[in-house]
Write a structure and sequence with these properties.
With 333 residues, the chain is mainly α. It has two domains: 101 residues, no CATH class; 215 residues, no CATH class. It contains twelve helices and seven strands. The strands form three sheets. It has a three-stranded mixed beta sheet. Strand 4 and strand 5 form a beta hairpin.
Length: 333
């Protein structure tokens, strides 16, 4: 068995399985040979056999792959895919076990004292803004920066496109130069779309380029959307290096990018901290408010997910928690 080829083949089959079950493939990007394209790897068998094939792949990787880091990466991704198959085939998996099975990290609920500290940080940054109390200040702050419709479309396909080129330059200057190595970057195209279930998405297209789409059915905020640029561009950058490594080594497993795996923890973490390692200093007080609100809403959203999926709380209770503790509007909660 060629473990690298089998890895790509089975990723494609799991992608076909998840698409049958949910309408969405677990494969997020592919830039390898056409003969191994995930769309050609449809799986017609039962989930049990698919799982068994994934388990055999783990043994093959252990036998064939000599590089310890490469072996650990491939095994970890396959273990995540096994968890995906178990989950969607109807296995009753406790939520903490599902989180650990997918992402290889323990589930963690943030204590309410931690939430209190984040709320205090928001209060400190938003103190000078209009409003009689914190909730009104947060509401008015969000409304002042809202952008929708044609204005939003113009912002995405005009201003953000220009800003993306600047961010690409920052990566070359402040990150790649320190690595002593550069990577080809054919840029990111920004596009406004409608009718999608998400607000924004990075699609890596291969050939060192990406498409970033924003759903203009949603309302964005002029202050928050700037942070999205850094986050989504880092997703693009991580795949640039991934494609470079694939082309130089021929390691086929690098040419396919599955979702819901341990890799995603690193991917989202580096995207969230892109501004920090780019050393971007934004003196605008509104940006500091946005940053503190983001932290608060991140931890309360995680807590709400645990309430809903592990603690047996209702959707209404989870929404109320995000409204009360995360200072979200009812709509966004």
């Amino acid at each position: 068995m060629d473990g690298s080829k089998e890895f790509v083949r089975l990723c494609g089959q799991v992608g076909g399985f998840t698409k049958q079950m949910t309408g969405v493939s677990v494969v997020d990007a592919y830039f390898g040979p056409d003969e191994f394209h995930p769309d050609l790897m449809q799986y017609e068998g039962d989930p049990k056999t698919l799982r068994e094939n994934l388990e055999r792949l783990i043994d093959a990787i252990a036998d064939e792959v000599e590089d310890p880091l490469r072996e650990e990466y491939m095994k970890g991704e396959v273990m995540s895919l096994i968890a995906v198959v178990d989950w969607l085939s109807g296995s009753r998996i406790p939520y903490p076990d599902l989180v650990e099975g997918l992402f290889h990290i323990p589930m963690k609920r943030f204590g309410e004292s931690v939430v209190d500290d984040y709320i205090k940080s928001v209060e400190a940054e938003i103190e000078g803004y209009p409003g009689s109390d914190l909730r009104e200040k947060v509401t008015l702050f969000g409304e002042q920066g809202e952008v929708t419709g044609d204005e939003l479309r113009s912002l995405i396909e005009g201003d953000l496109q220009e800003k993306a080129a600047e961010v690409g330059g920052l990566f070359r200057e402040r990150v790649f130069s320190k690595m002593g190595e550069h990577v080809q970057d054919n840029g990111v195209i920004y596009e406004a779309v409608t009718g999608e279930p998400w607000s924004g998405y990075n699609w890596y297209k291969g050939d060192f380029k990406s498409l970033n789409q924003f759903n203009v059915d949603n309302t964005f905020n002029m202050n928050t959307i700037r942070s999205v640029i850094y986050h989504e561009y880092e997703h693009h950058v991580s795949n640039l290096w991934r494609e470079k490594e694939y082309r130089e080594t021929g390691n086929l497993e690098l040419a396919i990018v599955p979702l819901h795996t341990g890799r995603c923890v690193i991917s989202e973490g580096t995207a969230d901290t892109a501004k920090e390692f780019l050393e971007v200093e934004e003196e605008d007080p509104a940006v500091r408010v946005v940053n503190e609100l983001y932290k608060l809403r991140r931890v309360t959203s995680i807590n709400a997910a645990i309430m809903l999926n592990h603690e047996g709380k209702s959707a209404e209770e989870a929404v109320d928690y995000m409204v009360e503790r995360g200072y979200r509007t009812q709509k966004y909660a």
